[in-house]
Amino acid sequence: MPKSTEVLPECTQLMDPGKLRPFLEAFTSRLLNLGHTRLTVSGYEASARHFGQWLQSTKIAITEIDDDVVRRFAQHRCRCPGSRQADRLSAKYVNRARRFIGFLVEYGAVTPSTHELPGVDLHEVQIVAFQTWLRRHRGISERTVRRHGRMVMRLLAGLGPDPKLYDARLVRQVILDEAQRSSRANLKTMTMALRGYLKYLATQGLCQPGA
Question: Is the pTM of this model over 0.90?
């Protein structure tokens, strides 16, 4: 059976992402701001660095990244510096790289594909913009900014991706649903974070003022 590979976090720094370096730094910063643990982020960073290293070795430009390039990366017989030799990459490992590519699409470095490449994660984009607004206008600690982002991210599954559809009934139902899973103290903090998020959306004209 062919071996699959997971690049260990301590090997990550041995891999050179090349011209993807500034995008990789922004990507890992976003993941941390969204509340992911450093261990989780190190896994995404390893996959993204590996992808950048492979692009250099195969002389593929960033602008040439498409479905076929990702498939070739997933299927390449890995002898890249900083990784363990393997005949294939695991699906989980490749999916981490795909999420990074979705980030490149968002930044306009890669042209969106109509097939397998991931598009922009609208929830993540909304949360990052909310966190930026908190830093600029609310004067709260970075720890609180990250916590608010993490809590609102959890609530977005119930609220849905389109803020224009939010109303008082929907917001109340999402909070009631969350009350079944959270402690009273946690729910209070989550409600505070959601109020801040709705205020942010209203200032941007993205939702009804009375939501």
Answer: no
